[in-house]
Design a protein that fits this description.
Shape: globular
Number of helices: 12
Number of domains: 1
Radius of gyration: 18 Å
Helix content: over 70%
Largest sheet: none
Length: 272
Amino acid sequence: MKIFKTIIDFYINSSIHVGLSCYALVRITQMRFHISHDESMANFALFGTIVGYNFVKYDALARTKKLEMRNQLKTIALFSFCSLLLAGYYFFCLQKTTQLFSILVLGLTLLYTLPFFPNKKNARNWAGVKIYIVALCWVGVTVILPVLNANTTIGTDFFSTAIQRFIVIFVLILIFEIIDLKQDDPNLQTVPQQIGIQRTKQLGYFLLLIFCGLEFSNNSFNNKNHYLSIALISTIGLLLAFANEKKSKYYTSFWTESIPVLWWLLLLLFTV
């Protein structure tokens, strides 16, 4: 049992799980826009997300020497370096336009992590800003980049999908913020800190209703796809409903982050 927990903790702490979630969302976008044979884009998202998240999680602590390089962290550092090499390889397999936009997303990630201005905190610590930057980065990587790389025509469905993806990521982050309410610095001004847990949940439900409305106005998916999407949105609603400060870290870092992977697997199972 201890070995199993060690494996799961490494899987989560090394950002493999969140990387697979990003990979799954890219695949969902490719299915929605009938993009095939674009492994490079999906793999770039996978390894780029692993590198980006590990950088965000461990950079500040490492620079301030508050993080001891235990064996697991050394392994994560090595794994991140290998992921960086793979992300670099797949980056050069992308279209030029996609490469340029990915650099913009990288800039947002660096802004989120590094203090660019003297005596100023990074964007991660700017009051109320974190959730929007993270959601925008995910929309950029999982919707805009795949469409750009495939030279797909941008129409109404594209903007609808981008808004839906922003909503999904935003609500999933709300669940994280509810669980982390006691640990978060009050100066972060997260949504639950500003409006309370109950109103945060109400905001999440309202956004999920908007998602549903957009889903049934989108013509790119058939009815089966619509119903699968609604089922997953209902699952997110349940996770939001039962979220509270007493839940363990696995409630968010494993189960909540599993939603994109489950969504993609169900689409593969029932639509291919």
